[in-house]
Amino acid sequence: MLLCLVIKDAGNSRRDKGLGETSHTVHAIMAGRDMVNGGGEVDTFEKDLKEILEDGPNLNDMHNTVQTGSPQKIMTSSYPGGSGSFDNTGSSQLPRSQTMPPATSHVSLSNNPTSSNGDFLPKTVQTAQSKIETIKSWSVNTFKCTKQYIAERLGKGSKTVDLELEAQIEVLRDMQRKYANILRLAKNLNSHFCNVVQTQRALGEAFSEQAQRSPELQEEFSYNCETQRALVKNGEVLLGAMNFFTSTINTLCNKTMEDTLLTVRQYEAARLEYDAYRNEMEALQLAPRESTSASKVDGSKRKFDEHKVKFEKLRADVSIKLKFLDENRVKVMHKQLLLFHNAVSAYFTGNDSALEATLKQFNIKLKPANTEKPSWIEQ
Amino acid sequence: MCQSMQLYFAVLRIGLYTLFRRICGKAPAAPKPTFSVLCLGLANSGKSTILTLLSGENADGIRPTVGFSIKALMFADCFVDVKELGGSDNVRMYWNKYFCGAQAVIFVIDSAGSKESMETANAELHKALADPELDGLPLLVLGNHQDKEGARSKEQITKELELGLQSTARKWIIHTCSMKNKEEIMAAFQDFNKLLLEMKEKEEREDKTEEQDGEFSKI
């Protein structure tokens, strides 16, 4: 920082009075550096100073923060694209090389780095500047939005509310919650039913095994085995239908609705920005008119218009997406609910008839089986 | 007491298991990447039918999509969420509302369509691709209805849609297919998935190099 100031001074004095004074100040720096180094090794010192000077972004950052927009910039720039701050350092470098004791590699040493500076530095300077710019604008934006958000939360700031749209969005959010609940329940049912079907299959196998092992109960076991197998067969069909139902609801709930909600979130963010800039503009317009504030008002008006355009666009997007989403939801759910109902009713009615049929068979054949063989107690 | 012991043992087991995997150098399998893809095309080009076939549903009785529909397709190497938009005139004007967040584009055309319809398709395709949201995204062009008479070949479609004019930044592939042949559609999507995965890998690599560059510039 100190160095920067000195160099800035150097630049100013050079502009005012010519080279002589500048060399003095630089000599002062040199003397200080020499004392630090403990010896008069010119090369190392030169390197050191150059390193310090070439520490581009750092110097430049300081410079930017210290005197952005101040009129103390050197106009004569021999380095294309270099910023004012670096020209200062460059100009302080030139007189130093003039006052140096003659060395063999003197010219090449002083010239080469400067030319490489000219090639190399503008890039880093530019990237640093653009980075600083983005960080600056981002932080200003974030600050404004946070201010607006807090003001809204505290109930102070004014807020744009599109009642109809907000209501629709609220309905959509609620609906997503409800559908997520349906999805959860359907998944639960699905997993339970999967277990049921597996158990039925195992039971059917156990029955068939027993039917082969015990000849006296063979028929009864085989009836049960067949019933279980029929249940498993129908159950697998129902399971497939239920899987399809859950996966489609999953898509609807987590993809389709989420897609619209993403736009809604963008819309809400844009709304906050819009309100922040609107409030700022209104505050500026209410403030007393001065020459400096006119440009500020213009700038804020321009930013406000930018955000207004973005906001309006997103609002249109949201309303259209909501409409399409509604249609899509109705269509998808109509199909899925029909499928689910048909599958469930077919499963139970189909099993019902099969069950009845087997029961009838069982009842009819049960009696003769009992009459044929009386119990050993009765004998 | 007993329950807490059980919990303790469970935690221990999980820890041991992860340690074991770490030692064996077997990291848990990376989750399949998910891509969100936009599917565009004029009315009656067969977008919904292709997607329905791919998701393994019954393709009978499909009516023209009004608005949009999202289908999650599962492939061996990735998941693809296809956001399909209706192709009729009144829906086309809202296409750009759905461009945000897309990672790739599928454009379906009726290869046996009339000359006017091809011209419309051309105009719509280039209008959509000119959108900044879709800049540089990979493109799959599907020439559907190959089983109809007078269907155009790949080369003809490429010429008529002026795909050669696409900038080098965008990767595009073209496939022809028909509703009757599911293998063709699958093959097209396999190629497309490869493209998507390549793109993802490239992006990851670029991210890494950018980080390294950042470190270098700091030094």
Give a written overview of the molecule.
The complex is a heterodimer of chains A (379) and B (219). Chain A is rod-shaped. With 379 residues, chain A is an all-alpha fold. Helices cover 86% and strands 0% of the residues of chain A. In chain A, helix 6 crosses helix 8. Chain A starts with a helix and ends in a 7-residue tail after the last helix. Chain A has helices spanning 2-17, 19-37, 42-54, 56-67, 84-99, 106-153, 163-213, 218-286, 291-372. Chain A has 9 helices and no strands. Helix content of chain B is 43%, strand content 18%. By secondary structure, chain B is of the alpha/beta class. Chain B has a 6-stranded mixed β-sheet with strand order 2-3-1-4-5-6, sandwiched between helices.
Overview in brief:
The complex is a heterodimer of chains A (379) and B (219). Chain A is mainly α.
Highlighted features:
heterodimer, A: 379 residues, mainly alpha, disordered N terminus, B: 219 residues, alpha/beta, Rossmann fold, 2 domains, 6-stranded mixed beta sheet, 6 helices, 6 strands, elongated
Indicate the proportion of strand residues of chain B: 15-25%
Radius of gyration of chain B: 22 Å
SS content category of chain B: alpha/beta
What general outline of chain B do the C-alpha atoms trace?
elongated
Q: Count of DSSP E strands of chain A? A: 0
Residues in β-strands, percent of chain A: under 5%
Q: How would a textbook summarize the main sheet of chain B?
A: 6 strands, mixed
Overall geometry of chain A: rod-shaped
CATH topology of the largest domain in chain B: Rossmann fold
Total number of helical segments of chain B?
6
GO cellular component, one term (chain A): cytosol
Main location (chain A): Golgi
Domain AH (chain A): 160-360
Subcellular location (chain A): Golgi apparatus membrane; Golgi apparatus, trans-Golgi network
